[in-house]
Each structure stands twice: as C-alpha cells, then as structure tokens.
Amino acid sequence: MSRSPHKSKEYFAKQLNYIDENIKELTELYISSTPVQERLKHFFDRYVLEVEDLLKINQKNDVISSFPKVFIGTKVTVLYDEDNETEDYLICYPEQTDPDCGYISFLSPVGRQLLLKKIGEKVLLKIPTGDLFVTIKEISFAETFLDLERKEA
User: How confident is the model at residue 10 (pLDDT cuts 50, 70, 90)?
Assistant: First the structure.
C-alpha cells in the first residue's frame, strides 16, 4: 500500500476534531497528570491555535513538509546535552502510548514539556530522577500514526 504524503494535512485537521470532541476527557487527564505548578491556563486553546496556524500556513501546499514545532503526531529528536546522545520520541494521544517504542503521550511529563517546542530550542526536562537539558534537533511527521489510524478505522 503506498503512502500519501497528503495525509499529514488530513491528520492535523482530524486532530482538531478529536480535541474538540474529547475536550472534557482530555482536560480531566491533563489536570490529573499535571502538577498544579506546571499547569497552563489555556493549554488546549493554545495548542489548537498552533495547529490551526500550521494548517493555515500550509493551505496552498499539498503537504506539510516542515514542522517548526513539536505537535501530536510528530517525531522529535532530542539531543541530551550532557552526554551528547540523541533519542527519538513520537508524540501521541494517551491511548497510543508505548514508552518501549518511544511513543509518549502529549500529556505525559516529557511529552507535555516537548509539545510546541521549536527546532534548536533548549529545554530543561523535569523528570523524576532530576533535570535534564535537551536540545530539539529535528521534528518530522510520524507516518506511523497514519498506519495506526488505518488499523482503528
């Protein structure tokens, strides 16, 4: 089966519907999984605006060829500044989480901290074992998510 690069735009349009249709459950998950001091007042509103901007910028393009920020459905390569090693994370919905494969929910502690970060941006990741400085090296659309959608359909 051939893959259509046009699907990336469709994926992000569907994402807006998913958030709209599931906002109550997503908000409850966000509140329950995010420490009070780390909660952002308009977390979902801000995210939706960023996705709408991404689609608007690419409305005349057949595909979204570059991703300036980390979104749900993207693969982000981070460089651990201290040991100069990289790791890939696929930012996904909570029900797609599989940490062993690098799939992390956008509501997980690490996923939440990477969401909407830009290429080249340095991020202080707060994790249970301490703080890690990482740099966002690369962001791309994760074709894997299209395969998951096909299986669920």
Answer: confident
Quote the distance between the C-alpha of residue 80 and its chain's center.
Answer: 18
Contact between residue 64 and residue 58 where contact means Cβ atoms under 8 Å apart: yes
**DSSP, residue by residue, 4-60:** PTTHHHHHHHHHHHHHHHTHHHHHHHHHHHS-GGG--TTHHHHHHHHHHHHHHHTTT
Helix, strand, coil percent content, the chain, rounded in steps of 5: 40, 25, 30
The answer to whether 91 and 72 have CB atoms below 8 angstroms apart is yes
- In this predicted structure, the answer to whether residue 79 has a pLDDT above a threshold of 90 is yes
Give me the pLDDT at residue 4, please: 45
Cβ atoms 102, 88 nearer than 8 A? yes
Take residue 153 and report the two structure tokens written for it.
């359909």
User: Could you tell me which of 62, 75, 89, 73 has the C-alpha nearest to residue 16?
Assistant: 73
CA distance 95 to 90: 13
Q: Is the pLDDT of residue 82 over 60?
A: yes
